[in-house]
Amino acid sequence: MTNDSIATVRWVGDALSGFLRLIDQTRLPTESVELDCRELSAVWEAIRSLRVRGAPAIGVAAAYGAVLGARSEGWLDVAAVRRALGAATEYLRTSRPTAVNLFWALDRMDAAAAEAHRDGASALERLLEEARRIDEEDRAMCRAIGRHGAALVAPGQGILTHCNAGGLATADYGTALAVIFAAFEQGTPLHVFADETRPLLQGARLTAWELKRRGIPVTLICDNMAAQVMKEGKVQMVIVGADRIAANGDTANKIGTYGVALLARAHGLPFYVAAPSSTFDRAIPDGAAIPIEQRDPREVTHGFGRQTAPEGVDVYNPAFDVTPAELIAGIITEKGVIRPVNAQTISEVLGSR
Amino acid sequence: MTNDSIATVRWVGDALSGFLRLIDQTRLPTESVELDCRELSAVWEAIRSLRVRGAPAIGVAAAYGAVLGARSEGWLDVAAVRRALGAATEYLRTSRPTAVNLFWALDRMDAAAAEAHRDGASALERLLEEARRIDEEDRAMCRAIGRHGAALVAPGQGILTHCNAGGLATADYGTALAVIFAAFEQGTPLHVFADETRPLLQGARLTAWELKRRGIPVTLICDNMAAQVMKEGKVQMVIVGADRIAANGDTANKIGTYGVALLARAHGLPFYVAAPSSTFDRAIPDGAAIPIEQRDPREVTHGFGRQTAPEGVDVYNPAFDVTPAELIAGIITEKGVIRPVNAQTISEVLGSR
Question: Residue A13 sits in a domain of what CATH number?
């Protein structure tokens, strides 16, 4: 970890009395507020309301949330812990549908609960240990993504990114932004163009904030300016994160990503995805099977603290879209860069499951 | 005019004591407020601040504003009126750089001032008459655009539009929306998808409002959802307005239009521009010569009553972009549809200047 690390999610204390502390990302960039979650329901709400967001960070937060849930019936015996953990993971799975890291992390918590345990307390300790492992592994994966991706950035390049795939979207350091951070730390001059990312402005609020605090040159644009920035030759590559990647490489990410990928192709620019192996869902063949979350119309009509559309207007507000593998120049993982992107190269880099 | 008409801009009273009344579009859709401009400076500010916006409406407002300016030294003699009018049109030309209707309307006011006049009062009356002509001609052009364009809309189509090219962008009835209004009035079922159009949300605030008040089905989306809506087959055509069209058909329009045109091409959808002949600037060969207004970063960072980006972040905020003629399936004018779009077909439909 560097001094620039962000404590996006962390566990405070021990398994029996500790709690989850997270940065309330809905308050950034104007307020820096931490939220302590001592109950399962608070974690569910934090994920649902995007107080914590980004596929890897959701996975880590959910794992810690499962520990909170697992002790909700006390820890008199292993069965009580297992029962409570099972209910907790089932509940947390309903918080958001698209990011697969959520389900991946909860599967690991379920498996840890199923192991042999001496007593309830040690079962809880094992669950916290598993959550901490998920957390630590995510940190390591982000660093490795940065290392693999930095080699793709040529000096002086402009890099467009969409939404936030930084330290705030992971346990620390990020995925798409990890590539940028690592290249910059190696002394590669670069300039980032950050799509503001409507409706919830993760690019304006979070990505611009992360880049500025690290001293990396960043220019904020509205989403609809990306094509113009490309036409003017201001960017030479695009890097984004991912919420779920199918077996063939089709990638779900924040709404607008698919459009950016098409614009990149129209301007002959490479479009990269950066994501850990935990974001791959190789049980589904392609992007058509990825569930896309539909969110509250008020995110669009009342997003800035006041009403900006006619009362009662019909709104379409999908939170994600799917970019087909053929638009993706490469997927930067902790195990290396998958390029070109197809089921075979994914298996070659990540192994066959 | 129908009952659905919008009094976007109108002159109240006579030439010597009347004033310009306009809808303050920055207050829509939550407040319906009219602004009375009795001084030239108020008109300049209204155009600059987008209280009145849309290329044709800017032209009409500027013409009336020139009348206010022309009487600022009284009307003791023709020379005083001419002198004041000259200063007024020069000043109004500095309000916004891209929409050519502004310059076109002010050229007409200058020419009207240069005619022979009996005395100062009759010079002012002639100037008001010219402004009223520009106003009336714009209404007629919009209706004709609607008639020509309606034939392009097949029953049951989804139509995507960007920004606002409706009654609020013109003296009445609109350009891109005129096509939609006319098709709908003829009984053609259709559904509009309105890009919200960051940063100032003309699509959310104005287009959705205009369509709803006419009972036309409309769904509001964020700009970055356009690609997804196209991919899902929800729209079959795109229609937008224009701020300036070069001799070869390259078209400046609200930022984001160029991106939408590229996305339409990627999905095989026709992309139409609707604009009156007054929006053509045939003195410039192509879009490279169109000046693009850069606007205040605070429109992006503080757009809606609260700060949504880090303090002091660098922002790129071009108000317009240029869509190359080759991406445009046709330009719908009051004289007919220009298709394919090139210098020759433009001359054939509009005449050789």
Answer: 1.20.120.420
A184 and A251 co-located in one domain: yes
Of A162, A226, A313, the CB nearest to B212: A313
Same domain, residue pair A104 and A168: no
Q: What is the mean pLDDT of chain B?
A: 96
* Stretch (H or E) spanning B34: strand B34-37
pTM reported for the whole predicted model: 0.97
Q: Is the pLDDT of residue B257 over 70?
A: yes
Burial (CB count within 10 angstroms: exposed 0-12, middle 13-18, buried 19+), residue A32: exposed
Domain count along chain B: 2
Per-residue confidence (pLDDT) for residue A221, from 0 to 100: 98
Q: Would an 8 Å CB–CB cutoff place A319 in contact with chain B?
A: no
For residue B304, give the nearest of A223, A229, A304 by CB distance: A304
Residues A98 and A180 in one domain: no
The catalytic position among A135, A138, A223, A243 is A243
Binding-face residues of A in 84-113 toward B, CB within 8 A = none
Backbone phi and psi for residue A308, each to the nearest 5 degrees, phi listed first: -125, 20
Please report, for the domain that includes residue A340, its CATH number.
3.40.50.10470
Statement to judge: residues A107 and A241 lie in one domain: no
Residue of A nearest to B301 (CA): A204
What's the domain range around B319? Answer: 149-350
**What number is the ipTM of this complex?**
0.96
Pairing of strands B19-23, B271-274: unpaired
Q: Catalytic: A243?
A: yes
The pLDDT confidence band at residue B300, using thresholds 50, 70 and 90, is very high
Euclidean distance between CA atoms A323 and A325, whole angstroms: 6
How far is the CA of A257 from the CAs of A51, A92, A253, in angstroms?
Answer: 21, 26, 6
Residue window 247-276, chain B: list those with CB within 8 Å of chain A.
255-256, 258-260, 262-263, 265-266
Residue A292 belongs to some domain of the structure? yes
Cα–Cα distances in Å, from B202 out to B178, B239, B307, B346?
Answer: 16, 15, 20, 29
Using one digit for the tens of pLDDT, what is the confidence trace for A284-337? 999 999 999 999 999 999 987 789 999 999 999 999 999 999 999 999 999 999
Burial environment of residue B109 by CB neighbours within 10 A (0 to 12, 13 to 18, 19 or more): buried
